[in-house]
Amino acid sequence: MIPKKVNGPKEALEGVKDGMNLMLGGFGLCGIPENAIAELVKLGVKDLTCISNNAGVDDFGLGLLLQKRQVKKMISSYVGENDEFERQMLSGELEVELTPQGTLAEKCRAAQAGFPAVYTPAGFGTEVAHGKETRDFGGKMYVLEYAYEADFAFVKAWKGDEAGNLIFKGTARNFNPCMCGAAKITVAEVEELLPAGALDPNEIHIPGIFVQRIFQGEKYEKRIEQRTVRSRS
Fold first, then answer.
1. Which domain does 66 fall in, by range?
2. Overall domain count for the chain
3. How far apart are CA 188 and CA 176, in angstroms?
4. Which of the residues 22, 98, 126, 162 has an alpha carbon 20 to 30 A from that of 68?
5. Is residue 187 within 8 Å of 12, Cβ to Cβ?
6. Rounded to whole angstroms, how far apart are CA atoms 207 and 76?
7. Using one digit for the tens of pLDDT, what is the confidence trace for 111-156?
8. Can you spell out the DSSP letters for 91-130?
9. Which residues of the chain, if any, have pLDDT below 70?
10. In a domain, 143, yes or no
């Protein structure tokens, strides 16, 4: 068995350099690789292109990288919860590529499967399709979208084993699975790391072949992006 367990985020992020393309799993603040993001902040790497559904919030998640001006370009779908992101985008400090949510997922999945591109109807006839190849299939128009190219993918799972097999919990099974194996190196942080073979094969969501490095994370905050409660009667 190829050893994949590493001793924490510092070892897991070896090889991360300025100017790299990074994928980061999660949806809002759900299932984000908190330890990996914190280590990226410590490393101080800059000019990063980050592929992620969201851009975090001002003081958490990818918002921490934006605060330190470490991100050159964001490729995202929903970015409405981060004031610093908005400021940098409107001032021209940050390059932004907004992508339909399903298209973002499929471009990750294409990279994971080894496909160079996919055709999707999403965005045809809009600014999203500007400058891209389009084609008619059965009387319906589709846009050609190229698979993402990333150096590292950082994902977060509930359980994993030392062979890299992963199980996600609840809605944390969002963009994490399709980013596994979609980059040159996939790093998984897990809440519980078990010996190889300890997971029930029928419960595994992502097989270890898609993961190169795995470590047990710590001190997860699991924040709620928008907390709405009703007043006590």
1. 17-100+149-216
2. 1
3. 9
4. 98
5. yes
6. 26
7. 999 999 999 999 999 999 999 999 999 999 999 999 999 999 999 9
8. HTSSEEEE--HHHHHHHHHHHHHT-SEEEESTTTTSGGGT
9. none
10. no
